[in-house]
From TrEMBL:
Name of the protein in its database record: Acyl-coenzyme A diphosphatase SCS3
Gene behind the chain: SCS3
Segments of this protein annotated with the region Disordered: 1-27, 382-407
Keywords: Endoplasmic reticulum, Hydrolase, Lipid biosynthesis, Lipid metabolism, Membrane, Phospholipid biosynthesis, Phospholipid metabolism, Transmembrane, Transmembrane helix
Leader sequence segment: none
GO BP term (any one): lipid droplet formation
Organism, scientific name: Emericellopsis cladophorae
Amino acid sequence: MVTTRRGAETWPEAAPPSPTRASAASTRLRSSPYLPTPLEQIGLAIFPATLVFGTIFSVLSPQTRAAPYDPITQSHAQDPTMAPSYFARKSNLFNVVFVKQGWGWMSLAFLLFVLLHPSLSTQARKLQAGVRWGLVTACWFFVTQWFFGAPIIDRGFRWTGGRCELAEMEVAMGDTSVGEMVTAVACKAAGGKWKGGHDISGHVFLLVLSTVFLVEEVGWAVLRWANWREDERAVVMADGATKSVNVEAGVAAGAGRAQNWVGLSGKITGVVAGLNLWMLLMTAIYFHTWFEKLTGLLTATIGFYAVYIVPRFIPSVRESGEIQDHPLSIPSHLDLGSALAMSRIKAPGDLPDLVKKAFSVARANGDIHYFPTQFQLRFSPALANKPKGPPPDPAAKSHKPFDPFDNPPPALRVADIGPSHFVVLNKFAVVPEHFILATTAFKLQTHSLEPSDLEATLSCIRAYEGHEDGLFAFFNSGDHSGASQPHRHIQLLPIARMKDGLDKTSSWDVLTDRLSERQTPFTAFTERIHLEMQGGDLHEAYLRLYRQAVDAWASFTGNRVQHVASEGESMMSYNMAMTKTTLALVPRVAEGVKITSEDGHVLGHLALNGTLLAGTALVKSELEWEALRKDVAGLVNALRGIGLPRSDSIDAEEEEEEKKTKI
């Protein structure tokens, strides 16, 4: 339904925004990048709580107190008739099969998750997870197996006065051939006793570190995949700004909401983590002194902090571990240089701040044309000053037409997006912080988009993830699309700025994300996308939509189409829009309609571009705006006439209701 109330104009009516969206921006950045998040702190608290509970239980339990304890073996009597519990015996099945091989079980569970869970569907995410596994495994290996000789646990034991009793006796008797036993394994293999020093609990260290690793890798991935909880993590950017981790996230929140978001692999990791916690409790009750268990916990916590917290506040560490997806095959129309350039496309993480600052400075200096407006059916005086591309002049064919994106003023240029694109402020902004993504080399607006165009666009949208309401991008191609410049460019609007001037109770939201559930006066083709998609995958989705649109356009206009090319000049005019979840394409057969007053006087021309996929219609004067709000049915007919009409979109009864709408 079309409504035209001043200050809260919406078209078409959309579902109310998510109640969590408004508060998300204000809560995501409260976690310090130097400390675990509140959720991580709760998880980490489980480990000392388990150790404290186990220690108290061992003191209060009559069976445990009555059983003899050997400080050298760090365990109770191993005779089944004297051991306080089956789990107090080192030969118990869980200890022998599970804990002694604990790192292998953890690694197997993690491998299954990486291979099977859809949240890690790309090669880049799998490799990044593998790098973190390698770092944590190195930590485990250095502490328990080898560290340029003896492992850190054994070195610590020796540094605190520990020794191998057998080696000491042999040396005292004059036999120096045994040498000095520097590891617990060597000492015990030789029949000696490892005693006298502080022995960091290897069981506690292994069980805590492996559990933390599984929870970090699986927990955050699953929570984001299901959008069950806002991601609390924060990172420090290269410029020192603290941002939500969403600016660097590779997968859209809620991408797997409709699926089994835990999956078999997630359940397996849960079982392994659960067994780890159970055996940690058994260790707390029956093995080691409280101080040995404490140092095992602290050592594991240091490993967690080094692998998961330090990269959050040192950007260079994150960048050194960043792995880009590389396409396994290169499309026929894409040369190797283009493919390599595409793999390097990444928008600055602080792009929202760069755009905001540049817009404020440019507006203060008069470098852009922008006039605030409170209309959602937007009255934009800036459009009245916007020049169209120059008409062809037969006498001046040799002269190069003016190109606003060829060496734009430094005051408007914001940042480079890889080697193929750059961001520049729109000189004729329709909302604050309206900016443009243009190709570095001149490419035609009327040609099909390339993978790098789509990858660069999604990169900008990704940079706005977690920043207020995100970003809306649109592309105009062809005579009937509202395009004004021949140099290829995609326009981007911060969604929060599009909402400026609307009542707080307004239900307006970006139409593109609602097209699958809304009946519009024009035909639109959509596909679901996500922030992790690469340029090649996006391009395939774009081509599918384009071919569907061309087929529908040809059927409607009577044109015969034998082959739809994936490159070169577009066969029709169209608008494309992209958000973080949706790619949409609308074929066009007209740019707009004349706007007339009640007495038939022509007031202007309603020219619609890609902003119609946001649910807005831009007009150049208040007279045009007033005329349209008095003729809602006329606006609906105009929307039906600019594209391929949908007979099921708005029936006659609803149109009659629209005419009776109070204005």
